[in-house]
Every structure is written in C-alpha cells, then in structure tokens.
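User: Is it possible to get a 3D structure for a protein together with its bound compound? The compound here is magnesium ion. I've pasted both below.
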Amino acid sequence: MTVSSPPLLLPSRQSADHKGTFGRVLLVGGSRGMAGSIALSSIAALHAGSGLVAAAVPDRVLETVAGYHPAIMTTALPCLDGHFADEAWPELRDWVSRQDAIGVGPGMGTGEGSTTIVSELLRQRKTPLVIDADALNIIARQEFFDDESYARGDSDAPVVLTPHPGELGRLTGVSAKDEHAQLDAAQQLAARLRITIVVKGGPTRVVDGCAGEQSAGVYVNATGNPGMGTAGCGDVLTGVITSLLGQGLSGWDAARLGVWIHGRAGDAAAAGISQAGMTAWHLAQTLAGVADEMVESSQTAPSV
Ligand SMILES: NC(=O)C1=CN([C@@H]2O[C@H](COP(=O)(O)OP(=O)(O)OC[C@H]3O[C@@H](n4cnc5c(N)ncnc54)[C@H](OP(=O)(O)O)[C@@H]3O)[C@@H](O)[C@H]2O)[C@@H](O)CC1
Ligand SMILES: Nc1ncnc2c1ncn2[C@@H]1O[C@H](COP(=O)(O)OP(=O)(O)O)[C@@H](O)[C@H]1O
Ligand SMILES: [Mg+2]
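Assistant: Yes, that's possible. Here is the predicted structure of the complex:
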C-alpha cells in the first residue's frame, strides 16, 4: 500500500529535549456516560507526542477517566448530574493560561456549565484552542459565531474547529447532504472569523481563514478509510490536533498534519485489524506506532 507524504514535518527530537519541549495540553469534556470520549482525546494527545496531558472532567467521572491511562493527569471540576456544573468555569479559569493548547467538547454535553466553559474559552485569546463535538453544538445553539467579536486578530492564538458534517450543518445551516455547499460555508466561516476548520469525512478537508481574504485554499487529506466510521475516532483527532498546537504549530499546520497522521493511524489499524472490526481504541494505539512519520530525520519508511 503506498502511503502519501505528510504535508509538513515536526522538527527532530534532540537529546536535551524534555516534557516541556513537547507541550503541556488540557482536554476539557466528558460526562457520565461519555467518559470514554475525553479519555480517547487525552490518550491521543500523548500518542501524538505531547509532553504533559491532563483531562479536566466532571468530578463524577474522574476515576473512570483516570483509569484509562496512568500518564494522563486529571482535574475534577464541579459536577451536576454527571455533567459540568455552573461552578466548573471559575475552577477551570486558572488552568487556562498555563496550557500550551486546550481541546474542548468531546462528551461534554450542552448544559449550562458546559455552555459557560465554551463561551469563556472562546473569549480568551492567548491559548490555542481545538473546538469539537458538543462545544460546536453549544456554539451553534447559542449562535455565538453570529457575533463578530469572536473573530480572531493577527496576534491571537489559533482556533481550530473539527466538525463532522452533522455538526457543520448545525453551525452553518447548510445540510450535511450538500458536501460542496458545506465546504463553501466552512470557507466563509473560516475567513470571517480568521480560524481553521477541519471538515471531517471521507476524505477530510481543511480550510483556513487566518490569512484573511487570502485564504490558504483547501487541503484534501489523502489518508484514512471507512473503518474510521466508528464511535470515538473524532475524539481521537481532537487530541491529535490539540497536541500539535501544543507543540507550537499554527492552526493550518496542526490541522493538516493532524488529519494526515490520524488517517495514517486509521490505515494502520485497518491493515492490522480490519476496517469493519477496528475501533477508536485501536486507532489511538496505532497512532503511537506511526507518530514518528510526522518527525524530521527520524522519518522511517512507512511500515504498511
Ligand atoms: N465513547 C464516547 O464517550 C463517545 C462520545 N461521543 C460524544 O457524543 C457526542 C455526540 O456526538 P456524535 O457525533 O456521536 O452525535 P451527533 O452530534 O448527533 O452527530 C451524529 C449525527 O451527525 C450526522 N453525521 C455525522 N457524520 C456524518 C457524515 N460524515 N455525513 C453525514 N452526516 C453525518 C448523522 O446524522 P443523521 O444522518 O443520522 O441524521 C449522525 O447521526 C459528542 O460530544 C461526542 O464527543 C462520540 O464521540 C462517540 C463516542
Ligand atoms: N469513510 C471515511 N473515510 C475516512 N475517514 C473517515 C470516514 N468516516 C469517518 N472518518 C473519520 O472518522 C472521524 C469521525 O469523527 P466523528 O464523527 O466526530 O467521530 P466521534 O464523534 O464518534 O469521535 C473523522 O475524523 C472522520 O474524518
Ligand atoms: Mg465527534
């Protein structure tokens, strides 16, 4: 099987490098019944090369999330019926500026406490953000993006949205059935807000509005397969792109390299397991095995 080349490469790792070199990132989400989503995002961030990964979750699911991987740190936030309570944001606020990147949304639900977290994370402009899943649904429901004040300026940290066509339909009002119209709508939204948008699917496309009108065009990803149409694969991508932002990449670079390595790991899982039988858990594991294909000099010949 021929493997396409990555759109860019991370710098090679040096002997003096340490955890801090590879970024400290925080994944915010999870709820009772959807603890796995934020765990998949957190594990994916580690397997994409982050130095330090923490998950900020409702108190009720902390032990569940912590139990998935000993290297993931966890922070319990106030909880109501297994979801973020209104008091969650005041406790999360002090963590934000200490992160190199934050991913928000997987499994978080769309309640009051989650809505406040999303609104406040959108307001801050210093920490790079990946916005996915229920955080996108909250933005759509609250019509946050109708307000131009959320647009990013030249000195603001990057923001990357990662909607699947259902979420993109809620955000833009353009039906998931109309692929071309959805891509146009994503390009307009990206240019208006000066953000990067990953339009997930088969294939996944990336559009970027950070250069203002001179949009960088459309990146069409060449890796991935229908075996990735299984619960949690998007949560894995959230962790990957959060990790790459935390390693210092721009939104455009983190999104393109993120979808490339995510699909590459999906292809490795399909080859190693099967398309029908692979799960997001397998994807998160095979990601660890192919991660060096994103790195200069240690670029190894693809194994499959
Ligand atoms: N283990 C866990 O904890 C997991 C937790 N998860 C968490 O669940 C939350 C809800 O997220 P979600 O994506 O599951 O539900 P939802 O937003 O209703 O979208 C699904 C609908 O959207 C559409 N659609 C999707 N793709 C499409 C396409 N390519 N092309 C066309 N249409 C497409 C399609 O709509 P339909 O066609 O069925 O009307 C589909 O039914 C979220 O927070 C997430 O993180 C999950 O990650 C799973 C694992
Ligand atoms: N047919 C396909 N070909 C390539 N990638 C796919 C295909 N179907 C789904 N994917 C990928 O799997 C992921 C699914 O994301 P999402 O629907 O958000 O999953 P979840 O929310 O369950 O984690 C996306 O990255 C998408 O690009
Ligand atoms: Mg998803």
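Residues 132-133, 164, 234 surround magnesium ion (ligand 3) (CB under 6 Å). DSSP finds ten helices and eleven strands in the chain.
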